[in-house]
Amino acid sequence: MSLDKDLIENDWVLIQLLGKKYTKDSILNGDYRFDFYRNDSLVKQAHFTLENLFEENGEWYAQSGFKYEETSKYSSFLTISNGYPACGYAHKHLLFDIKNNTFNLIYDYETMFDGGWGSNVEFFEIDDNFIISRKTNFWPNEESTSNEEIGVEELSDSIHFKFINNKWIETYITPKDTIYKSRKISFNKFHNIQE
């Protein structure tokens, strides 16, 4: 799997499935080996057991930095994702710290969008050693009576990640799996679509 254009041109990751197991609910759990290459040299090998992969035939893809960033620059963070490339399918994401060839896993999470509705995780990079994330759900508002599509935005699972003593420490700022803020908002405004 090649990485995106913001990364060094000769960076890539070889992902090998070592074994797989389905749960009674037909959810795929897989054991994987990740070989991280920089300038075509192996710099790290890591094993991960990934749960809830959803799609055995899902595609792997990668992105440097965070989506909210508008500037194209080298980032010390990398997200590797797996999922079926279509709306309505859940995707599994692994956020890595890649500075100094460490390739340390910081966080794994899931997202799903279908026609602009669904759930996502947003990240806010404070500096190379401090990140804040939050989960954002956006669902149709069943009670809306206007012609404009109105949805309900829900925020939950705010987490800060700090790099302390050579490892990333995850701390929940808000209670896990609990919505702490909710508001009604138009579909176009949520997605920054100019009307």
What does the overall shape look like? Answer: globular
Low-confidence stretches are 1-6
Work out the strand percent.
over 45%
In sequence order, what are the helices and strands, one letter per element?
EEEEEEEEEEEEH
Strand segment count: 12
Helix content: under 10%
**What structural class do you assign from the helix and strand content?**
mainly beta
Euclidean distance between termini CA atoms:
38 Å
- Tally of helical segments: 1
Radius of gyration, taken over Cα atoms and rounded to an integer in Å: 18 Å
The main pleated sheet reads as:
9 strands, antiparallel
- Arithmetic mean pLDDT: 85
Fold and architecture overview:
This protein has 195 residues and is mostly beta strands. The chain has a domain at 115-195. The protein is built from 1 helix and 12 strands. Strands 4, 5, 6, 7, 8, 9, 10, 11 and 12 form a 9-stranded antiparallel β-sheet that branches. A 3-stranded antiparallel β-sheet has the order 1-2-3, with no helix packed on it. Strand 1 (12-22) and strand 2 (28-38) form a beta hairpin. 12% of the residues are buried. Residues 1-6 have low confidence and may be disordered.
Give the arrangement of secondary structure elements:
Elements: E1 12-22, E2 28-38, E3 41-50, E4 59-64, E5 77-83, E6 90-97, E7 104-114, E8 117-127, E9 130-140, E10 150-164, E11 167-172, E12 179-186, H1 187-190
Antiparallel strand pairs: 1-2, 2-3, 4-5, 5-6, 6-7, 7-8, 8-9, 9-10, 10-11, 10-12
In short:
The protein has a domain at 115-195. Helices cover 2% and strands 59% of the residues.
